[in-house]
Specification:
Length: about 160
């Protein structure tokens, strides 16, 4: 990012990069969970749920990529090792169940966790960094839709 582009970012950029990296870590946890869950899910409607989980893997990967691009633009380095991911994530890697309902309930927790974290960052960046703010709003929108889809599948 150019000089002026960097200048217009107000506040503590290092802290912002760290917070964005914590979200990258959360995305990796989510996508790894959805990936393994899509492989092992069994029982009623497992094929359908597996397909939806695979789509979520792609979506979370896209989020991680968009965040990483912004981190690089801001002059930072995205989390780059599994250890860093585990250290920075807001939540531990969730326990894996194999049945559809257990997987969906865990996915719901994961989504609600990231919604909370993104919402906090959306508020923090509102006046300080319009570009990061807009990206975060866009991702938050996706996460809110994901939560709703999971609730629908769970019949809530
Ligand atoms: Fe995501
Ligand atoms: Fe998500």
């Amino acid at each position: 990012m150019g000089k002026k582009g960097k200048e217009i970012v107000e506040g503590n950029v290092k802290k912002l990069i760290d917070e964005l990296n914590r979200m990258v870590a959360d995305e990796w946890i989510a996508l790894f969970y959805y990936w393994i869950a899509s492989q092992v899910v069994s029982g009623r409607s497992a094929i359908q749920v597996s397909g939806i989980l695979k789509e979520s893997v792609q979506e979370e990967l896209e989020h991680a990529t968009q965040l990483a691009e912004r981190i690089v633009e801001l002059g930072g380095k995205p989390v780059s090792t599994p250890r860093e991911v585990l250290e920075k994530a807001h939540h531990k890697f969730p326990p894996l169940s194999k049945d559809v309902d257990g997987i969906l309930r865990t996915a719901l927790k994961v989504e609600r966790g990231v919604i909370e974290s993104y919402n906090k960052l959306v508020k923090e960046t509102r006046e300080k960094d319009p570009i990061t703010h807009r990206l975060l709003v866009h991702i938050l929108r996706d996460e809110v839709s994901e939560e709703q889809n999971i609730e629908t599948m769970l019949g809530k």
